[in-house]
Amino acid sequence: MRNVIFIIAALLVSMLLVTGVSCHDTGKGNGIGVAATDPVAAGKDTSKMVKRGEYLVSSIGCDDCHSPKKMGPHGPEVDAELRLSGYPAGRPLAAFDTTTAKSWALFNQDLTACVGPWGISFAGNITSDATGIGNWTEEQFIKCLREGKWKGLDNARPLMPPMPWQNFRKLTDEDLGSIYYYLKTTKAVNNTVPAWIPPGQSKNKL
Q1: Which single residue of 66, 112, 123, 197 has CA 20 to 30 Å from 79?
Q2: Beta strands, E only, 67-202
Q3: pLDDT number for residue 44
Q4: Span 13-41, average pLDDT
Q5: pLDDT of 13 above 50
Q6: Do 73 and 201 meet the contact criterion of CB atoms below 8 Å apart?
């Protein structure tokens, strides 16, 4: 009888240990290289990640396309009030030569819109506003850059050129997470960017 009780007790302890491990995921990955546990939700200090993210965003060219610009003495300069908010929703799109667009990539004056064989694409709002990535999860953000998925959603359309996600996908999980947490600290700019326009559907033709 004592042997039976001992065996049952041992089984219960084993079950508790297994359950404890599964409930406290190490966060090393969930199939797409994404941490399973949100550091902020877990109460972890992300200050170092934010600092790293600021460095990366400022150095790998995010402002080039995602920030509206003003024309200064040396050409286009980032508009600090609208930084990283993408193509301004109320801005008229200039007409373009459709023949040239079949063979070239043509940018607007501040690089926030681009036309080419894929149609017309607009730089997205990546500020912390709800019209940007304010409601995105870290998993969405990493899937977006790792798999080229619009808004990081399964079965979504691919990201359009000139977004160089094929390069950014090579960044480490830590770097992508750092960019995400930094962008979450940016000034929220309410700006709903126009949707991608497929080839031949634009009215802005010469």
Answers
A1: 197
A2: 69-72, 75-78, 106-107, 113-116, 119-122
A3: 63
A4: 39
A5: no
A6: no
